[in-house]
């Protein structure tokens, strides 16, 4: 465990919907302060210098005047853009924090310290801004919060697992709530807190409830 970490249980909002109800209602004078993955905010900070098309998919309520988004890319901070592909090896983001796993690129270069530096910088921003919660891009070895992959993702078969990336693990260890862009049920419940007329679609499910995850990744370790 890194210095200064707390013992608070991780809180991924889709897995703890009671925490959504507990999140304060924002106002124009006290807007939500939401930490958003840089690519999800539309920044061209992906490994290939694009936003992966995610900027066009962000929830409408990001633009509500009672919401203030602050965006950050931990991999860009640690490695720059464009960059090689950072992949988890030997465990998830928590295991990396505990020095039981590493982050390597596709050439097997150890970039663990760069990912940890990016995660620490993201945490510092979250603490400075006193964020209410974070909306992070899933699948990333840094920002993932539902599904990650272990090993080089350019080599088939890709070993998908349920789990979190390095930056997400650090945010969770410090008590910050996290949701991914693949969790429309939770994002809808958050949107409903801003607009009482908004009726979340009862049919939508979060990523850990999706048929693909239930078929391929049946066991949730957390
Ligand atoms: S590290 Fe996070 S913010 Fe940066 S490109 Fe990957 S998912 Fe997006």
Describe the structure.
- This protein is an alpha/beta fold and 222 residues long.
- The protein has one domain (13-22, 30-216).
- Helix content is 27%, strand content 15%.
- The protein is built from seven helices and eight strands, in the order αββαβαβαβββαβαα.
- The protein has helices spanning 17-22, 74-79, 93-97, 112-129, 166-173, 184-194, 211-216; strands at residues 32-37, 67-72, 87-89, 102-104, 133-136, 147-150, 159-162, 178-180.
- The strands form three sheets. Strands 2-1-5-8 form a four-stranded parallel sheet. A two-stranded antiparallel sheet has the order 3-4.
- α4 packs across α5 (166-173).
- The chain is globular, with a radius of gyration of 17 Å.
- The structure holds iron/sulfur cluster.
- Iron/sulfur cluster is lined by residues 37-39, 45-46, 73-76, 137, 140, 142-143.
Topology record:
Blueprint: H1 17-22, E1 32-37, E2 67-72, H2 74-79, E3 87-89, H3 93-97, E4 102-104, H4 112-129, E5 133-136, E6 147-150, E7 159-162, H5 166-173, E8 178-180, H6 184-194, H7 211-216
Parallel strand pairs: 1-2, 1-5, 5-8
Antiparallel strand pairs: 3-4, 6-7
Helix pairs in contact: 4-5
The protein binds iron/sulfur cluster.
Iron/sulfur cluster binds next to helix 2.
Tally of individual domains: 1
Categorize the overall geometry: globular
Question: How many angstroms does the end-to-end distance come to?
Answer: 18 Å
Largest β sheet strand count, sense and barrel closure: 4 strands, parallel
> How many DSSP-defined strands?
8
Radius of gyration: 17 Å
Bound molecules: iron/sulfur cluster
Helix-and-strand structural type: alpha/beta
Unreliable residue stretches:
1-6
Name the strands of the widest sheet in spatial order: 2-1-5-8
């Amino acid at each position: 465990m890194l210095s200064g970490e707390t013992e608070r249980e991780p809180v991924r909002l889709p897995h703890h919907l009671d925490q959504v109800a507990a999140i304060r209602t924002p106002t124009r004078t006290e807007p939500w302060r939401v930490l958003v993955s840089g690519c999800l905010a539309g920044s061209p900070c992906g490994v290939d210098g694009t936003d992966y098309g995610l900027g066009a998919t962000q929830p409408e309520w990001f633009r509500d005047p009672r919401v203030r988004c602050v965006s950050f890319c931990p991999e860009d901070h640690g490695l720059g853009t464009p960059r090689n592909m950072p992949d988890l090896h030997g465990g998830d983001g928590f295991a990396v924090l505990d020095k039981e796993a590493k982050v390597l690129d596709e050439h097997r270069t150890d970039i663990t310290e760069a990912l940890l530096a990016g995660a620490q910088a993201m945490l510092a921003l979250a603490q400075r801004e006193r964020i209410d919660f974070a909306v992070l891009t899933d699948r990333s070895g840094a920002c993932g919060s539902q599904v990650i992959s272990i090993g080089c993702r350019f080599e088939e078969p890709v070993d998908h697992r349920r789990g979190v990336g390095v930056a997400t693990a650090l945010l969770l260890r410090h008590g910050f709530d996290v949701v991914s862009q693949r969790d429309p049920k939770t994002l809808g419940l958050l949107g409903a807190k801003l607009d009482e007329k908004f009726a979340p679609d009862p049919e939508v499910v979060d990523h850990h409830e999706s048929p693909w995850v239930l078929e391929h990744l049946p066991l949730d370790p957390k």
